[in-house]
Automatic annotation (TrEMBL):
ATP binds at G102, E103, P104, G105, V106, G107, K108, S109. InterPro entries: AAA+_ATPase (IPR003593), DNA_repair_RadA (IPR004504), P-loop_NTPase (IPR027417), RecA_ATP-bd (IPR020588), Ribosomal_Su5_D2-typ_SF (IPR020568), Ribsml_uS5_D2-typ_fold_subgr (IPR014721), Rubredoxin_2 (IPR041166). It comes from the Bacteria. It comes from Rhodococcus gannanensis. This is DNA repair protein RadA. The gene is radA.
């Protein structure tokens, strides 16, 4: 005996409930719960009987022991772009689906156009198909001419219909497929508007099936919302194998590629690029972009090392303290958390003897770097103290440590890796918290337990009489 069960499913997060509700209790979306297809449940009076969703089908191929599955089929292949390979975990895996998301104008299309060009240069059997639904073929050709990405084995299709895209795949038989973007594709047999939740989910599922059955790796470009999240249903990120975020400031040429999800490697890697008029280039040593005073020092500057994923990046913190007659002195911050700068100023006043209540204070980073982790607290404190005293810190000094409200210097993670990167770039001294582990050979390391001890490395300004 069988009976029909009716269920309701959220189109945004796939949450299933037994009755209809106006708002999904899982993701909080309104009007996203729809009736799902009815399920036949087998009812039996026997003890221990379980429900079945339907009659069993004979599989086309039997299950294979894991030890007999070939690992060479899914070995990653280099894309020809080293920084992209770094984030992907060595390259792109055949049959995988990669979602690249980012704000408009950040350089997503330029990056993937460079990828298809270098992919086509690998050999005569490596053809790449670039499908664009946002631009015309002429616009893409103009960008390819400007960036030098024109190649005979790079095929271009200006299509937005999914069925037509599959037709191009059958004709070209590419070994790499780029879809720009998934929000502009349209499946004629699926209800919903272009870019809607239903359309995006169906198109991504179809392209994922194509990748898994044919072994063709697929790279999708995705839009982002004003909050920086990937536009579309949350299920979009669950369907794909890798999710990458391409970030950058419109006032800077630096672009950062971050891994958010990666089924084939670490999701903590970060790739660095520099966007030029003639294309995009990998930046293997990005620390040089964030340092201005490398060989000499100036008052109000301190160098620290930040961890961006697994990558150690040296950055320069600058401070400026200026006397003012304004009863409400200004506090301006760029590249750092304003609340954390205010906290460091308060700790300096309490435990360092600093007097900035009648002075304007400016704090910034160099090169558009964002310093949000607490390990930059001590460098910020020494930069502000150096600016107030108008004396420079010792040359070749790098500063690490979190500053507490009691004036203590707390330990930070990855000190060994941070100091190794600083030593590679020629820094010879370091201020670190106590018990920070091993240090690179040839670097003089000073352990400081309190902010007062660290301020001893900021020389006092000499008086006028010597």
């Amino acid at each position: 005996m069988a009976k029909t069960k009716t269920s309701y499913r959220c189109t945004a997060c796939q949450y299933t409930t037994a009755k209809w509700v106006g708002r999904c209790p899982e993701c909080g979306e309104w009007g996203s719960v729809e009736e799902a297809a009815p399920v036949l449940a087998a009812v039996s009076n026997r003890p221990g009987a379980t429900a079945a969703r339907g009659a069993a089908l004979v599989p086309n191929s039997p299950a294979t022991p894991l030890s007999q599955v070939s690992a060479t089929v899914s070995r990653a292949k280099s894309t020809g772009v080293p920084e992209l390979d770094r984030v992907l975990g060595g390259g792109i895996v055949p049959g995988s689906v990669v979602l690249l998301a980012g704000e408009p104008g950040v350089g997503k299309s330029t990056l993937l156009l460079e990828v298809v060009h270098r992919w086509a240069r690998r050999g005569p059997d490596d053809r790449s198909l670039y499908v664009t639904g946002e631009e015309s073929a002429g616009q893409v050709r103009l960008r390819a001419d400007r960036t030098g990405a024109v190649h005979d084995r790079v095929y271009l299709a200006a299509e937005s219909d999914l069925a037509t895209v599959f037709g191009h795949v059958e004709q070209v038989k590419p070994t790499l497929l780029i879809v720009d973007s998934v929000q502009t594709m349209l499946a004629a047999d699926v209800e919903g508007v272009t870019g809607g939740v239903t359309q995006v989910r169906a198109i991504t599922a179809a392209l994922t099936t194509l990748a898994k059955t044919s072994g063709i790796p697929v790279l999708l470009i995705g839009h982002v919302t004003k909050d920086g999240a990937v536009a579309g249903p949350r299920a979009l990120e669950h369907l794909v194998d890798v999710v990458l975020h391409f970030e950058g400031d419109k006032h800077s040429t630096l672009r950062m590629l971050r891994g958010v999800k990666n089924r084939f490697g670490s999701a903590d890697e970060v790739g660095c690029f520099e966007l030029h008029e003639d294309g995009i280039a990998c930046v293997t040593d990005p620390s040089g972009l964030f340092l201005h005073h490398r060989d000499d020092t100036a008052p109000g500057t301190a160098v620290t090392v930040a961890m961006d994923g697994k990558r150690a990046l040296l950055g320069e913190v600058q401070g400026l303290v200026v006397p003012t007659q304004n009863p409400s002195p200004r506090r301006a911050v760029s590249g750092m958390d304003a609340a954390r700068v205010a906290m460091v100023l308060a700790v300096l006043a309490k435990h360092g003897g600093s007097r900035t209540y009648d002075k304007e204070v400016y704090a910034a980073t160099v090169g558009g770097m964002k310093l949000t982790e607490p390990s930059a607290d001590l460098a910020l404190a020494l930069a502000l103290a150096s600016a107030e005293r108008d004396v420079a810190l010792p040359a070749g000094l790098v500063v690490l440590g979190e500053v507490g409200l009691a004036g203590e210097v707390r330990r930070v993670t990855g000190v060994g890796r941070r100091l190794a990167e600083a030593a590679r770039l020629g820094f010879t001294q370091a201020l670190v918290p106590p018990d920070s582990g091993t240090h690179p050979a040839g670097m003089k390391v000073h352990e400081v337990a309190t902010l007062r001890e660290a301020l001893r490395f900021v020389p006092r300004r000499k008086s006028a009489d010597g």
